[in-house]
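Cross-check.
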Amino acid sequence: MPATRTVRRRRRTLAAVAALPLLALALGACGYGSESESSEKNDKVAPAAKGEKIGGLGEVRIGYFANITHATALVGLQEGLIQKELGGTKIKPQVFNAGPSEIEALNAGAIDIGWIGPSPSINGFTKSKGQNLRIISGSASGGVSLVVNPKKIKSLDDLKGKRIATPQLGNTQDVALLNYLSEKGLKVDTNTGKGDVTVIRQDNKQIPGSFESGSLDGAWVPEPTASKLVASGGSVLLDEKKLWKDGKFVITNVIVSQKFLKEHPDVVEAVLRGSVKTNAWINENPDEAKAAANAKLKADSGAALPAEVIDPAWKNVDVTDDPLAATLSQSSEHAVKAGLLEDPLLDGIYDLSLLNKVLKADGRPAIDDAGLGANQ
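Predicted model, tokenized:
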């Protein structure tokens, strides 16, 4: 992994304008599946805002995806664990299907805080010359797999000539797949997806149908899409955890508008307390948390996930307060290598001061920002 000082010296430029939207996360909402028994047991209304408003603020607008990799947001909202910390300051939630729209909403002042993936965080930060957002906490690690048709692909040496899907050109999984293929000596044109392996960019909601029809040989996708493919006959050929040190890499973090952070640090701190408490509750009550997440998915997308999908998907995602900053740096390296990004300067992308304040109050050690903090 490159030294963080090398990252800090990088130019504050992107590649051609055409590349600007490429590094966008598009983890589609879970619009498939049937109602599960576990969700029926958790069909409750989250607690309403009550008590004193923090700093007199009436509401805080929070964005997230209806996705298992956003488990902290799903469970925290469903169980009222975040709202409880905010007292009378009401949460106004907004569900997104893709990273670019969430970043646009943050830039437009339509949301204040968001759960989002690493690629749009990097893209949003660099495109604004470091002026629009800060990453303030981690949320999830893992939850990404290469799932294939076992009749067509039996080993990692069988990828040449095959059709592999990712959710979007330049998104987090697309970058990971392109980097992996390059390391195996397989050449693919970044923009067209053509080469030794044909990379097909397709929305997460469409990938399962394409896989079942036989138009795809496999897909590098997040949860619950990966488990959906397995449930329809696919086989996990590679869990991305195996490619990272200690099996950990950032898939979801928490960002905030710099303006909102400056004007309402007490509200941001309260949201982070709720996030930390939610992650602790998830780890202490995995079955209840899974049911809560599925109930929230049902409320947000109209359908809960069946047990054969949510059970393995839930096990494949690890919630964490640590944003795993070093892996964000490595992800940006992969994007540069793939030609999607030109040496971004990530200095100041993190501000973990409030998170570490929350952790300290809980008797826990501070989390490192890999030298990319705003106060370095």
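Residues 265-284 form the longest helix (20 residues). The two ends are 20 Å apart (CA to CA). Passed to J.P. for a second look.
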